[in-house]
Each structure stands twice: as structure tokens, then as C-alpha cells.
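Give me C-alpha cells for this 197-residue protein.
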Amino acid sequence: MSLLPEIEFLTVDKNRFGSEFLRLRSELRNRRFDLLLHMQVSLRASLMSTLVRAPVKLGFDRARARELQWLFTNRQIAARRNQHVLDSFFGFAEAAGVADRRLEWNLPLPSEAIAYAERVIPDARPTLLISPCSSHAQRNWRPDFYAQVADHAARRWNMRVVLCGGPSRAERVMAIASRRSQQRRSPIKSGATLCRR
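Here you go.
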């Protein structure tokens, strides 16, 4: 079920690239699109983009089109330097003729998700959410660094700290290690809560 009924989501499991590529190829075989916004600079995403039949395949300018993305597009957004990622995404909208930069964060959530959030964050107390893992281990901080941030937020601003993440082993290990490190530093009453997406 999509949270945005007017948008169709075709999701893929990037850990099963071969079989997912074949499945997506079958799903898209007889479909045509007006425009592909190729906003992900990864070779996997570029290979998947070859399955989308569209006369315009819009990607990043050559300097930002890492992992050979430029080979898979036929139009590029305007070149910019030192641009925030959100502004670079607006570059795609502008290239497609949309000048409005109004942002809306009103994603409709199912009632069970709201109930879960209210159990984890039951009041108006300031809350810091820490999602400590990225898909690339090199981008992750050390657990004790996250613990220092959690400790500082709890002590300095009396914040509730919530460690969140997915069910992968790496995320569970990181969250548990961060929490243990934080508790070793100084067990705070308001210590981190663990929750999973």
C-alpha cells in the first residue's frame, strides 16, 4: 500500500540485483514514460534506468554524474558547485520546467504508524532521533561518537534520545554498541531508546 495513492512505487531489493533487474524488466516491458529523472548516482541505479523507456533521461551535470551516470542520460541539469543535495534536486524540477520551490512535508501516515510513534514519543519533550547507519559502512561514525551526542543532548537539553534503524545485523550491532557506550560513559536516566523501522 502506498502512502501517496496518486504515485506508483516500484521498489527493488538492491541486495538481489540480478533477479530484481529481470523482474523490473518484465514489469516495465510494455510501458513508456515521458521523462526519467535519474537522481541517484550509483551504477546499479544507472543499470536499472536502462529499463525505463523515455525520450528524455535527465541526470546530473558531468561533474556530479559519478559512477558513470552521464553514460545513461541524454540531458543534464545545470552545472553547480558546492550545492546542497536538496538544491541539486530542485535542479531536476527546474530542468523539467517547474520553478516552484515550495516544500510540503505532509506525507499521510497510516494510523498504526502514528500509534507506534506516540508510544515511542508519548509527550512534547524535545526528542533527538539518531539513525546511525548508512548503506556504506565507511560513512558511519564510531558508536562512541553517537553515544557522546546522545549524552550531550540528554544532559545539556534534557532531550529524549531515540536510536532508530532497520532490522539489518549491522544496524542492530551499531545501535546496541552506541547505547552501551553511552551507558558506560554515564548512565543517564533518560538514556537512548531503541526502535526499528
